[in-house]
Amino acid sequence: MRLGHIEVTSLLALGLTWQLSPVHCANEPCLDLYKDAHRPKVYNTADLQDTSSFEGVAHKTITGMHHHGTRQLEMWMQTLVPGVVIPPHTHGGEEWVMVLKGTATFKSRDLDMIVSTQTLRSNDSITVLPEVVHNFSNLGEEDIQLIVALVGDLHSVLYPSWEAHASEAQRLDPQPWDVKCPSQVPQSLQPLQREAQGRDEL
């Protein structure tokens, strides 16, 4: 069992507080897609549970290693309300993000510690390579909805500011929405659930 603790507050979040309490991760995935690998299951993303622990952020894991037992692929759907600023962070693997609705502000930092800003509108997408410090913000007046795909190492490293060095950052592993298994599972996936004994659920 892995243990971790990190608390991130303010960070330009316009009054919103980001905080993670001590977390732990189940030893096994919640579902096992490989249990019936040759019969792929159809399910509706509307039936997935919101597992976010952040104020102002809705999160659904469409498919993923902890929730579904995939080996590499992780896909999320996230909604950020106006005023949300995600802290600067990195991922251990590759990340692709597409804006489905609204206007997102994307920032990234290069090796010379120079921060650049780009605007993503509906149907815009961006690929973020491993260990690139970046963030997304909603500085507009309407919700933004994102589709996120990650491959490989899912751990994140959170930076207290854009000026901070790696020695000041803190590793976040597991992701906050992977701490417990969803209590609501689409009907077609229910036969793939692992035994609930000894497994925490949201």
From TrEMBL:
Compositionally biased residues, Low complexity: 182-193
Subcellular location per the Swiss-Prot or TrEMBL entry: Endoplasmic reticulum lumen
GO cellular component: endoplasmic reticulum lumen
Alphabetized GO MF terms: auxin binding; metal ion binding
GO BP annotation list: auxin-activated signaling pathway
Span of the signal peptide: 1-25
Transmembrane intervals: none
Annotated Pfam families: Auxin_BP
Keyword Cytoplasm: no
Keyword entries, A-Z: Auxin signaling pathway, Endoplasmic reticulum, Glycoprotein, Metal-binding, Receptor, Signal, Zinc
List of residues binding Zn(2+): H89, H91, E95, H134
Keyword Glycoprotein attached: yes
Region: Disordered, residue numbers: 174-202
Name this polypeptide is given: Cupin 2 conserved barrel domain-containing protein
Natural source organism: Coccomyxa viridis
The organism's taxonomic lineage, starting at the top: Eukaryota, Viridiplantae, Chlorophyta, core chlorophytes, Trebouxiophyceae
